[in-house]
Amino acid sequence: MTWTPDVTFVQGLDFFSAVVDRVPADGWERPSPCAGWSALDVLGHVGFTTEFGTKLLRGESPDFSAIPDPPRSAVSGDPGQWWRALVAPAKGLVQGADLTRVVDSPIGPRSIGDGLSFPGVDLFLHGWDLARSVGADVSIPAEAMDFAHQVIDPIPDEQKRSPRVFGSVIDVPPDASPQVKFLAWAGRDATGS
After folding, report:
1. pTM for the whole structure
2. Binned average pLDDT, 10 residues per bin, the chain of 193 residues
3. Which residue intervals of the chain bear CATH 1.20.120.450?
4. 5-154: which CATH architecture?
5. What DSSP assignment string belongs to 106-170?
């Protein structure tokens, strides 16, 4: 089955939520694979992109100028409770959403489906980042990796290979697992070296 933007977004919310539940209370300050970010920064960033998706579903135009810096500044109170409060509205709005409806966005008019695509990918990649921060292992579903390639591959390298999107591709052995190859494509070293 090929995942659609709404399926990827909902599955991603569940995937990321399961990782959040694995972070111990003292784990939020641990460094993440994202340069200069702690686990709490990863959570803040993903919370922001999830709210972006929720605003699109409501027909609002999200404001990219409001990106929290540092990302951790978006999180208030208990990190797990803060995250869970974002998930319920996002899931509720995606049910039955018209993915073809066009809304204004910071990069011009786009469909709800297009607008949900990148936040959906983010949930899986940053779910891996968050898990790695606390020494946990997770398996990204093959469907999520395929969907990420569909969304990201068409973007020119000069746009996707930047500190704000993906780092450079990392070399991995030809016999590496599909997940290790996927993460290397996304600029992440999953080999442990």
Report:
1. 0.92
2. 89 97 97 94 94 81 77 96 96 89 77 88 96 96 96 85 80 94 93 67
3. 5-154
4. Up-down Bundle (1.20)
5. TTS-EEHHHHHHHHHHHHHHHHHHHHHHTT------HHHHHHHHHHHTTS-HHHHBSTTSB-PPP
